[in-house]
Specification:
The chain is mainly beta. It is 9% helix and 43% strand. The chain is elongated, with a radius of gyration of 32 Å.
């Protein structure tokens, strides 16, 4: 128990030091094959990225735990694996199974790529089951990325790793001649990586989309990068922060029509660089919120009026309607840009058919973000807006707070009554107004209405439509 408590205290001390950076501990792994010296593998670990795993390895080394353990698994083109205490004197059938008394380390999955020479923590199906066993990649194995904890790398002696992985082995990838190891601490690497140079998007760029890649120069020795975005040039607040295992990243949650500043820091596993130079850009206009037809709606008329919310900074929109969720050219039945209103009627849809639709905003010639895509199913007739004097296109938001918007499509100019009533039928709001033909939008103030469940009743020309809403 005393040893376990000491491990936890030291581990937390390591984590607290991350902000200042931590010199990378270095070790040598002397290997022997069948008792004969084979060669030395020099490694360094990443305490700034996987502090708990580094502490575990260092503690085991100080106890000479690894001495006489074997590299018990060799897979050409993949990894060599070792560090199991069973390999010291246990039956070969137990090699790789470990012991139940061994302390485990919680997963510290990170973005460092599984490239040749990378060291990772072996585990079973439980992500938090890593103990003393580790592997060294003999080739790029990036399919492991994000599923195993990377905590170090080989600095010299990869030729010895190559010799080990090519050892004759049995059907279970166990070397026919035992290859044991002796691990000792040799010092630290206190180097600090250079700051990257930003590449794209260019400084002052406009119309930057969520799908555009951010790129910067690769830094020698860096194994990870952190990209930061802020609306403040002093970065007093960080709006977006992402780690990347390569010198690029795609940011998917930019705000629309916003001026951002961005910078990148490199990380060599022990220290971060100073921030890079700062670039700024303006993101493209935001995605519209689709209102009608609602997602997965059924019974939609064959000549519906599509509607969406206006987008700040956008002066036009593109409406796309497709028979495929991938919006391929062949499946597109409507694809019109330059729409200046936030609604558009599309005619001639097929009955009982599934369609997908989305909207893209634009500012001048600069295209903005695509909205999410909605699906809907048409009914069997042309629809209410062709047979009845009006149809309700959308009531949003729902739930509502201070304001609610009602969109109607009218065949002709009509006097419309809009009532808000509670579940007891008491009318709390009664608005009567004249609406022109086509798509109409009316906003109603709800600030004096208590939270609860209510009904909105729309009446015109002898026809009524009632919808349930929630006010928060």
């Amino acid at each position: 128990m005393k040893r376990f408590i000491l491990f936890i205290l030291v581990a937390f001390s390591v984590i607290d030091l991350q902000a200042q950076g931590i010199d990378k501990p270095q070790y040598e792994i002397i290997t022997r094959r069948a008792g004969n010296y084979l060669g030395t593998i020099n490694i360094e670990l990443f305490p700034l990225i996987a502090p708990l795993h580094v502490h575990m390895f260092d503690s085991l080394t100080s106890e000479q735990f690894f001495d006489s353990t074997a590299f018990h698994r060799v897979v050409p083109g993949f990894v060599i694996q070792g560090g199991d205490p069973n390999t010291i004197s246990g039956p070969i059938s137990t090699w790789g199974q470990g012991q139940p008394w061994q302390p485990t380390v919680p997963a510290e999955f990170n973005v460092v790529r599984h490239l040749r020479g990378i060291i990772g923590a072996a585990r079973d199906n439980d992500p938090n089951s890593a103990n003393s066993q580790f592997y060294i990649c003999v080739a790029n194995s990036t399919f492991l990325d994000g599923n195993y904890t990377v905590f170090g790398q080989v600095t010299s002696g990869l030729n010895i790793v190559d010799s080990i992985v090519l050892s004759p082995r049995d059907a279970n990838d166990v070397p026919l001649q035992k290859i044991d190891m002796f691990v000792s601490y040799t010092g630290v690497n206190d180097s600090i990586p250079d700051a990257p140079t930003l590449t794209a998007p260019a400084d002052g760029a406009t119309g930057v989309l969520n799908t555009q890649s951010f790129v910067w120069s690769a830094v020698p020795g860096a194994v990870m990068y952190t990209i930061e975005l802020s609306t403040d040039p002093a970065f007093s607040t960080i709006d977006i922060s992402r780690n990347a295992g390569t010198n690029s990243a795609i940011i998917t949650n930019l705000g629309g029509f916003t001026n951002y500043f961005w910078r990148v820091k490199s990380n060599n596993g022990g220290h971060e660089s100073i921030p890079s130079n700062v670039y700024n850009f303006t993101s493209a206009t935001a995605a519209a919120t689709l209102t009608y037809p609602a997602d997965t709606a059924t019974g939609i008329p064959l000549n519906p009026v599509f509607s969406w919310t206006p987008v700040p900074g956008a002066d036009s929109y593109t409406l796309q309607v497709s028979t495929s969720s991938t919006f391929t050219t062949a499946s597109m039945i409507y694809n019109v840009s330059g729409l200046t209103a936030t609604s558009q009627q599309v005619t001639g849809l097929n009955p009982n058919a599934v369609y997908y639709w989305r909207v893209r905003s634009a500012n001048g010639s600069v295209q903005g973000f695509y909205s999410v895509k909605f699906s809907f199913t048409t009914g069997t007739t042309i629809g209410l807006q062709d047979e009845q004097p009006f149809s309700v296109q959308a009531i949003y938001p729902n739930p509502a707070t201070e304001l609610i918007t009602v969109q109607l499509y009218l065949q002709k100019q009509l006097n419309v009554t809009m009532q808000l009533s509670d579940i007891c039928g008491r009318v709390l709001i009664n608005n009567v107004y004249q609406a022109a033909s086509g798509l109409n939008e009316t906003k109603t103030d709800l600030t004096d209405i208590a939270p609860g469940i209510y009904f909105i009743t729309i009446a015109a020309d002898g026809i009524e439509n009632q919808s349930r809403i929630v006010i928060q």
